[in-house]
Amino acid sequence: MRILVLATHDQNRLLADNARIIGAAKKLGGEIDMLVVGHNVRDVAKNASKLEGVNKILLLDDKLFSRPFAQLITPLLVQLADNYSHIITSSNSVGRNIFPRLAAKLDLMPITDVIKIHSINCFDRPIYAGNAIETVKNEQAKTILTIRASEFEKVGQEKEGEGEGEGEGKIENIKIPKLAINTSFIEEYRTKSDSPDLTTASIVVAGGRAIGSKENFALVKKLAKKLNAAIGATRAAVDLGYAPNDWQIGQTGKVIAPKLYIAIGISGALQHIAGISGAKKIVAINDDIDAPMVKIADYSLIGDLNEILPDLISRLKQK
């Protein structure tokens, strides 16, 4: 059995969730290859080759692939599919874009948002906004999976060798498939942040509609900075312009599983709860003692967040 993992990277940096996807792939028990596609990504490939359990890296480094368009990457995956029993990637924006198209091209049903692997063809995934867990048994010729990285332990790096060629021995260059190109890159908007990655952070501080304004959201940021935490938001807070889209947590945002989740002014809608179901400890700061978030929280601070947050921030030492 052979497994192909599509690596995800950003600005020529291998994303942290790849180590967790390899951790998931190792539970399948087969030989793991990793596909790195992009432009000027040899360093990404070298870093990927150091992940424990990776057999080899398939590298396609070309300017044409400077953006992860599904229309470009899918034909490459289709070309490689015959060599693998399982093709997997992270259940992030890239995976959600590419893998449904890949499954359609291969005439297969993808299994998405996998949170547990029972065997090579049996998996758990959440349904009904995380209110139920579905166990899926796959009887198809191949298995197409997207993985919730936050639900799996990450692998470490193999011991480093010596010399500048380290990792190169595992890298195999592949050719560009024949493509009918009908997609072009126009523009990209980015949110600059020095906080940890939301999907892999051990502490997350998030704000909801009750924050009241974009200016008041600065308190959420200050608390997060004190705790060296990632910053999140509800869909309502994002829609109101308090926070950028990439901070959104929930069914239509990012799914997280931090050791500590601090929910500030968040009522606890089902769609948001679906995104934090993996959190180990939840602290709710809210003025409504009957809010759903307060009821599921391990600890709650009830009162005016504009009074609680400044006091809490002043009492905390910089982490």
Uncertain spans: none
Please tally the helical runs, counting DSSP H or I stretches of 4 or more residues: 9
Mean pLDDT: 90
Order of helices and strands: EEEHEHEHEHEEEEEEEHEHEHEHEH
Apparent shape = globular
Topology-level CATH name of the largest domain: Rossmann fold
Roughly how much helix do the residues carry, as a percent range? 10-25%
Largest sheet: 7 strands, parallel
The strand line-up of the biggest sheet is 7-11-6-1-4-5-12
Rg estimate, integer Å: 21 Å
How widely separated are the two ends? Answer: 45 Å
Q: Do you know the CATH architecture of the largest domain? A: 3-Layer(aba) Sandwich
Query: From the helix content, strand content and strand pairing, which structural class follows?
Result: alpha/beta
**Tally of strands:** 17
**How many discrete domains?**
2
Q: Tell me the β content.
A: 25-35%
CATH classification, class level of the largest domain = Alpha Beta
Kindly report the name of the CATH homologous superfamily of the largest domain: HUPs
Commentary on this structure:
The protein is an alpha/beta fold and 319 residues long. The chain folds into two domains: 2-173, Rossmann fold, CATH 3.40.50; 203-315, Rossmann fold, CATH 3.40.50. Helices cover 24% and strands 26% of the residues. The protein has nine helices and 17 strands. The protein has helices spanning 17-26, 42-49, 70-80, 93-105, 217-227, 235-239, 270-273, 292-296, 305-315, and strands spanning 2-6, 9-10, 13-14, 31-38, 54-61, 86-90, 111-114, 116-119, 122-127, 132-137, 143-147, 171-173, 203-207, 230-233, 260-264, 281-286, 299-302. The strands form four sheets. It has a seven-stranded parallel sheet with strand order 7-11-6-1-4-5-12, sandwiched between helices. Strands 14-13-15-16-17 form a five-stranded parallel sheet. The chain has a three-stranded antiparallel sheet with strand order 8-9-10, with no helix packed on it. A hairpin with a 2-residue loop joins strand 8 (116-119) and strand 9. Helix 3 packs across helix 4 and helix 5 (217-227) packs parallel to helix 9 (305-315). The protein is globular. It starts with a strand and ends with a helix.
